Amino acid sequence: MKMIIAIIKPFKLDDLRDALSRAGVHGLTVTEVKGFGRQKGHTELYRGAEYQVDFLPKLKLEIAVSDEQADNVVETIAQVANTGKIGDGKIFVLELSESIRIRTGERGSDAL
To answer: Fewest C-beta atoms under 10 Å: which of 38, 39, 71, 101?
Structure first.
């Protein structure tokens, strides 16, 4: 099993959720986060005053999938979240050693 963590631009969520659903993903967790990478923030204008925004709003998606689904899910995220502009985000893939569905006690891929 794999845990896929993706940091994306917020406006891409609906398109990505639809594409992941078509790719066979049955659940995901979304968290609103702030951060920066190479983009290093930006400046904004508010009431005539310019100020620096160091942490940009992003969404963090966490998706647990079987090993067989992982490559397809990563490719789907990379295609749908891509705008071609700086700040599109990152995808991380980690090994997931165990998964347990609390309600039924199912374990492993059955719990996904």
So the answer is: 38
